[in-house]
Structure formats: structure tokens, C-alpha cells
Amino acid sequence: MKIYLKNARVVDLTGRLDGLFNIMIVDGRIQEIGTALGGNPVNYEINLQGKFVVPGLFDMHTHLREPGQEYKEDIASGIAAAANGGFTGIAAMPNTDPVVDSADVVKYVLDRARQSGLVDLHQIAAITESRKGERLSEMKDLAEAGAIAFSDDGSAVTNSQVMRRALEYSSMLNKVIIQHCEDPELTRSGSANESAETIRYGLKTQHRLAEELILARDLKLVEAFGGKYHATHISTSESVEVITDAKRRGLPITCDVTPHHLFLDDSILSSYDSDYKVNPPLRTKHDCEALVEGLKSGVIDAIASDHAPHAIHEKEVEFDAAPFGMIGLETTVGAVMTKLYHEQKMDIHKIASLLCANPRRILGLPIPVFELGAKAELTIIDPDCEWTVNPNEFKSKSRNTGFKGWRFKGSAVGIINDEKFFFSDRLR
Amino acid sequence: MEPTKYSWWRKMAQGIRNLLGLRELTPDEILEILDTARSFREVLERPIKKVPTLQGTTVVNLFFESSTRTRISFELAERRLSADVVNFAASGSSVSKGETLKDTARNIEAMKTDVTVIRHPSTGAPHFLSRLLKSPVINAGDGINEHPTQGLLDMFTIREKFGGLKGLNVCIVGDITHSRVARSNIFGLTKSGANVAVCGPRTLIPDYLPQLGVKVFYDIDAAIQWADILNVLRIQMEREAGGDFPSIREYRLYWGINRTRLERSKKPVVIMHPGPINRGVELDADIADGETSLILDQVTNGVAVRMAVLFLTGVKPS
């Protein structure tokens, strides 16, 4: 199988390549990169004039719902959605049914993912048994089975002693602990951010401090006991400040942010549409700005979708009754290109770092490179492709996106991952 | 991309209006309802308290929460407008079999009903319903958000008593955080030029409430000095257990409205309460039944206000 990519603007994070190149891929390997190639017959010849070729994007926070809730999403549909969204690799959270807290479940998921193949699926295992926050899961056994990180995502590990032990134990394995920062006593039944905006809507609210409290405590624990620590889906300006400060002090910590916390704020809740019900809740416009600044300054390391599929019948209910979460695999690149690349004029290399290199580095995974003989793992991004988000066109089984109806400029239009590839209808 | 705005006027193209909340109404729209209610109030004084306005229309009262006053008030309003009335209570219905709100409402509408009145424990349920149904939706109380007809009847009552709303000092006393009555009153009164304050323990008043143009008192005596009208809310006993304030005893001691407190005020203060009253907790019996109390006027006016709202939905028989 030969794929010939012509006139691609190669985004090489090592800095060796810069400019327009032709890339010849043979049987999943990069055979040639140059300015004047070709001549030989190929299976696919694609002119990528005006498009970026970046190292394969990676989403470090997804929920694929298999095993247990396959009606929302399953590994096959999740992988199809990831490919359609431009990701060659994803990491799945362990809050499935059963919870991924035993080696058997890890093996099951990884085995199922291999059958799909197109996108590399990595499994994150639970920090504690059944995600109850009480007893450590069998972390070493889970790591041996292939788990790349640990998280009780959906809830925080609130017990300080358990968190201490988790950091210490995982440091032996050189695996990162990913914390969902939320003090559940403070959030209780609240489903919206407590703010000057939401006071108008009469929703049950939760205070922003719930995030910072757990985060600040965790940073103290990391300082005292070591370990690799990552705060996922941070959402407040105070979290950005706390992490800025901790990084200044040299703590080995990282964090990510979701596109919906970057680009949607709590004023959108005036419609009581449960697609906007997420956890942490959408914050204020001021927080959105602080998060964008956090990306620019490098304090925030990665963008992750927190792809959280829920069936239509689960979301088409009263706001209070709806589950938290929105999907994001198929809108992340569009949102990032529209808001960061075009509006904020963020450099494409920076965007590739946030969506490819940094998440992989955090998880200890190799970063795809454009080198002769290397595995071909790349994403094609058309920065000028304009499209309207229509959830009915998603490959995901679910439709719950807060970006429905948005007009985006920029889209992932295809991926190549080893011998497998996917080209979107938007590739033209 | 702007999120869709749902307003009273949303279905104007079809000549149909919803009443979702006073937040969504303009001052003029509020006045229109209050003025209309005045003529229906006169109907209630007639020997035959019935007009043919909604003859041939079917109104469904969808009550997902227990209610005595509001349900009877709506039903009387509907019957006095000659509408056909169907009552639905969540208990013992398809809801207890797991039917969703969407299915319940659309199935009932499929039987060709013309207007839906909904009381629901979840904020935004009427807004959700208004997107699913073709016919008008009237909010009879949603979660901790709004109880617009209560807000309107309170405003109507004040207006009748004082001849207007502008410049009056209205203080709402009690659990503001969990009160849809408080919120509808705040939206309606501030839009109509009244000065609004709230009073209660800090733990029962949202931090961001001043954003709504509201003054905050923690001291009931200071609030009484300020107010022309005290709208006293029911203290829900379960809040005590929830840790939102120390005890009913302490609440009664420091925020309960009694004769001693009121007599300290230099000017007379009018007392209102949306009911049901916890006598001896937030309001003493002699005050509730006293000459400054408008509580029963509120109840009577409630029927007139709901008749006005039903009339203004512009509903046509299907």
C-alpha cells in the first residue's frame, strides 16, 4: 500500500522540517520526505495544498462506555469518532461497568481495541477499587496488563491518606495519577456554576472553590510525597493560578483543559438545555479567558476532549435529571482551529504540542515523528475548511454536544496510522 | 453562536404565548397581565363567576409535585373561563412506571389538549416542555427557579393595596436560595420599579443575589424598618436537617415575624405570605390573621391573575 501526500505543510515538532513537502508512505512507514518525489505508481495520491500535516493527535481524556454502557458508545464507535475527529491515539477513562480496576478488564478493552486498529486506544485504570476512593486498586498488576495511567475520573480521590498512597505507589511504576478535582461536599447536588450569571437562572449551583480545594491539597501532597500528578479538565482562573505557582516552584505536575471549558461559558445555561450540563460546570467568561491565557503561557499542558457520550433519551430530560457530560472527539479540532488558530492567532506548532506531543509526554508515550523509516502516524488538518456542527453526522453513537450549530473554520480531514487510514468527506 | 432565547413571545408567530418566568418578560408584558387580571378580578365578585372565554379549550394541569393552593387556583381559573380541565398528578401515573416528561407531555398533547400548566421539581422543566409542545406552556412553579403566577399575584395584590408598585419597599423574608416565589417576585418587582430587599440568615441567601438589583438584610429589625411590605416565605423544615441553618428555634427567635417586632417599626408594615404557613415559625398566628395581613387577598387575586394568564396565552381550541 502506497500513499503519496503532496504539497503538505509539515508541522514537525522537532524543528527539523519546515515548509511544504511531499511524503511517500509505504506499508505504514514513511519511505521518503522531500520536495520532488513521485513518478512511481501509488494507491492514493492526495494533494494537500493549503493543509497541515501534523504528528497524529492524541486525546488523553475520553469515555468509550465499553464495557457496560454500549448503548452510549462502544470501542468501535468511539474509535470511529476519534478518527473522524483527527486523533490517532486516545486514552479511555476507567469509569465503565465494571470499572477498569482489574487486569482482566484492561486486557478485555485493549483486545477489543486491537480489532478496530485504526486508532491506538490506551486504557487508564482506576486509582481505587470500584472508584470508591477507599482502597488502592492493584496498580502494578494493572500496569503490567497495559494500563498507562490511573484516575478515578468522575469523582476525586478525596481521602488525603489514600491520595498520598496512590502518589507513592504509582511513582514506583512511573505512571501518572490523573485527578478529577472536585470536593463533593461543596458541589453536592449543584449542576451549574455558582456565578453572577447563573443567579438569574434558578439552577442548583456548585461553587468553583470545589476544584481549587482538591487541587491545592494535591499539590501539597505531591510536594511532600512525590509522584507524577496531572489535573484533568481544570476550569477556573484560580486553578490556573495555583498551577502557575506550583510549576514556578518546580513541581512535576501537568494539567489539561477541555474545549468546552475554553469556549463555552455559563451564560449559555439560560436555555436549560442539558447538553450544556457538564462536570466541572461551564464557568464564567473570565474563566474562559484565563484558560486561554493558561494555554498561551504554557501553564496548561494539553487540550483533552472529556468526550462523554450519553444517549439521547438520557439527555432529553429535565436539567436536574440529565447526566453530566458532552461529547468532544469530533469537535475538538474544529473548535481549537476556529478559536485558537484563527481568532487567537496561535501557532500551529503550539496547537500540535497541546493536542499531540504534550498529552503523549504526560502519559509516557512516544511522539510520532516525520523520519524515514518511522511509523506513519499523522493527522491532516485543513485550516480553512468551514463547516457547521451537525450532531447527526457524527460517528459517535451519541449527540450531546454543546457546539451543535456552531460554524467552525478548520477541521481534521484525515489520519494515517501505520497501515490504516481514514479520510474525511471534508478532505478536498 | 447565540443560544436560543425562549420568551413569552416565542410562539407569537402562531399567536401563542408561553409563561415560563418573569425573567423572560418585559415590564410592559407584566403590566399587560396585571391590567387584564383586574377585569377578571371583577368577574370574581359577580354572583355568577363564569365567563365563556375559553369555551371549547382543554387545559391540562401537569403536577409533578404536590400542591393544594396553586392547583386549585389554576383549576378554578380554568373552570371560570369555561375551559375543560384535565388534572394529572405524577404519583400513580405513567411517571411512576418510568415514563419521561417528554413522553408524558407529548402523549397528552396528542389527545388534542390546548394548553399545559406544569408544576415540576426541576428547574427549567417548563422551558424544556415549551420546546417539545406546539401548544402554550404555563409555569406553575419549577424547581428553585420561578413561580411566575405567584409573583404576578403578589404584585397584583400590592398594586391593589397601594395603587402602584413604583418606589415601594418590598422585603422578602426567609429561605431565598430555594424559593421560586422569591425569584419571581424579584424579577417582577424590580422590572416594575419597586425596591426589593431580602432578609434571612446568610446561608439562605445566594452570594450573587445583589446582581439582581436586590438589597440584602441579615437583621430582621433593620429590614422591618426599611419595608412597606414583608413577603414572608415558608421555612422548609428539611433545610434545618440539611445544615443550612442551625435550628428552627433559632430561626424563629431571630427571623420570625411577631407582634413585638412589628410594633417596634415606626410605620405600618403590610404582611404577605405565599403559603402554606408554618404558624409560629416564620409568622405568628395573630399577624397572619391580623389587619395588616393580605394573605387571603393574595389567594383570591391568584385566581384572577391565572385567568388573565390563561386568557393571554391566546389559545384557540384545537
Instruction: Tell me the structural class of chain B.
Output: alpha/beta
Rg calc of chain A: 21 Å
Question: How large a portion of the residues of chain A is in β-strands, by DSSP E?
Answer: 15-25%
Low-confidence stretches of chain B: 1-13
| Class by SSE composition of chain A | alpha/beta
Strand content of chain B: 5-15%
Q: How large is the count of helical segments of chain B?
A: 12
From N to C, what is the helix and strand string of chain A?
EEEEEEHEHEHEHEHEEHEHEHHEHHHEEE
Instruction: Please provide the count of β strands of chain B.
Output: 9
- Helix fraction of chain A, binned, reads 25-40%
* Shape descriptor of chain B: globular
Number of domains of chain A: 2
CATH topology value of the largest domain in chain A: TIM Barrel
- Tell me the distance between the termini of chain A: 21 Å
Q: What is the name of the CATH superfamily of the largest domain in chain A?
A: Metal-dependent hydrolases
Give the mean pLDDT of chain A. Answer: 96
Can you put this structure into words, describing what you see?
Chain A is α/β, with parallel strands linked by helices. Helices cover 30% and strands 24% of the residues of chain A. Chain A has 12 helices and 18 strands. Chain B has 318 residues and is α/β, with parallel strands linked by helices. Chain B has 12 helices and 9 strands. Chain B has helices at residues 27-43, 69-80, 101-110, 125-132, 148-162, 180-191, 220-226, 237-241, 248-255, 259-263, 285-288, 295-312, and strands spanning 58-63, 84-89, 115-120, 137-142, 169-173, 195-199, 215-217, 229-232, 270-272. In chain B, strand 1 (58-63), helix 2 and strand 2 form a beta-alpha-beta unit. The radius of gyration of chain B is 19 Å and the shape is globular. Chain B starts with 26 loop residues before the first helix and ends in a 6-residue tail after the last helix. Mean pLDDT of chain B is 91; it is low at 1-13. The A-B interface holds A 194-196, 198-205, 267-268, 270-273, 313, 316-321, 405-407 and B 1, 3-6, 21, 23, 100-102, 120-125, 127-128, 142-146, 180, 183, 206-209, 211-212.
